[in-house]
Here is the input.
Amino acid sequence: MTKRFEFFPHTADVKFRAYGKDLAELFSNAVSALAAVLGGEERWRGRATIEKHLVLSAPDRETLLVDFLSEILTWSDAEDALPHTVIVEEISDTSLSVRVSGARGVPFTNDVKAVTYSDLRVEQVGDRWEADVVLDV
Amino acid sequence: MQKQDLKKLTDYLWEIPKTYRAAMKVPARIYASEKLLEKILTDKSLEQAANMATLPRVVDYALAMPDIHQGYGFPIGGVVAVEEEGGIVSPGGIGFDINCGMRLLALPHTRKELSPHLARIADGIFARVPAGVGKGGRLRVTGRDLDAVLEQGAEWMVAHGYGEERDLAFLEEGGRMQADPVTVSDTAKKRGRDQLGTLGSGNHFLEIQEVADVRDEEAARAFGLFAGQVVVMIHSGSRGLGHQTCTDYLRILNRKLGEWNIALPDRELIYAPLTSREAQNYLAAMAAAANFAWANRTMMAHLVREVFQEVLGGTTLDPSLRTVYDVSHNMAKREEYWRDGNKVRVLVHRKGATRAFPAGHPQVPHAYRNVGHPVLIPGSMGTSSYVLVGTQEALTLSFGTSCHGAGRVLSRHAAIRMVDGRTLKDTLEREGILIRSTSLRGLAEEAPLAYKDIDEVVRVVENAGLARVVTRHKPLAVIKGD
Here is the structure.
């Protein structure tokens, strides 16, 4: 099975690298990584679901990813929802239209303060895409 | 960066010359010992110190405190003062947790007198003050009331019965800065609406401590501190509201990069010219988030007072907790300094660095005017905390700034691999420290070995002439979230 994401050492925070065959899969796996940090990727089954439709544009791919993950983080904090399913309707280097579903009432294990621009990277490596993101925890 | 890139100025002061990188406009200076430097060189913090020196209009040097470690754009422990004239503001120089800071309260009793009641008090605080991830408080503030909190900070809390009028004089800025709630987004307000009076998680904590050592008798007396005394330290910030505010403005500024034609060595150093509307809005929002944090610490202090009142009410002990001081370590402040006989107006960014103003400074509370204000330095879990006071020299050396704590050396991941939370808890409790935490893993992440040696950090600050130690405290009980 292809790796969706992995974590790297970072002194005060959490750094992950997400992978994907295209931007859509990459962005979706980045959300999974964020959810894994929030806590309890597997504990959402059976819980009530809420949905959010996100339409964003940004000057470049990297900003798009950070803004996207920030919106999801804010939504998960304000609505107490752990994101688990991402459906990418449309995505380009500078815009996206995505539906995210989250499970209500899953107790989070970690408090993520913000998605940062630190060490940020979104690029194609060979035949797949990679993104590096640092989360302030 | 390697050690040979640094110039050793004294045993406690190192310099990255501005020739290290073409974009540096001033040198960067790091307060550290040889010993601390070894650890500091293992992450990117010194590169970030060099990055700070590339900002426009930096006065003197970009500075770093001995507890420096890697952050975003700015290192944690970074201090940069820019001229107001032609200057800038960089949200990364304040941090996501706007007005993360400390409050110190003092009980008029010794540990010995309190010890029969300590466990009940620790339990009571743990039950009363929400700590940990996603834990909301009992006070839910929305709409016009939340805007009022953002505008009035600690004053709002006192006016609504959650604090004492006389506390206010002992809070930095009186617990209220000039702010505009309209500059804080609805999203940020939504994140903050049920977080007043909550501790948060990570390295935030509430500690009951004993004054183990008095090193400066006169200053301790002025602060009302004595050997063996019980004090309470609260470490917390502006919670989700502050984090979101910083995120919001980084996003806004990121979209202006092209228009302002700014070249950055690191995206996270993004800044706005002070003359811009965006800069003014950020500063007004930063102040609002700062007010939220002061209101938050005031509410927690109130809850702690309730617990002491309830537990000690029936006894002969006086349960009253006096506010000693409250000071921030993530903030930007407009200040004035003398340089070459001229008054220079600057905006000082302090991220993971604490203001330390000396005797005579107008911003020191009247009651402490002969000494300087207390500088509250939390140790990592289970280790000493300190109260310092700033020196006159620090005004020249570091814009009246000191360290803020111990600074991390190990990632959370590495810490939990090396430390078992249960074993750590047992060890600390065997040392006589009561632990009340919502998560053992959270404890392991905050294990002392994940941090620099606080005693060494404080020793450097003192030997460098930035501040001197007034008291050293040891923990009696630690209350924290995950």
About this structure: Chain B has 16 helices and 19 strands. The interface with chain A takes residues 43, 69-73, 76, 96-97, 133-134, 187, 190-191, 200-202, 240, 243-244, 246-247, 250-251, 254-255, 257-258, 266-268, 270, 408-414, 439, 441, 481-482 of chain B (CB under 8 Å). Residues 135 and 403 of chain B are 29 Å apart (CA to CA). The longest strand of chain B covers residues 467-480.
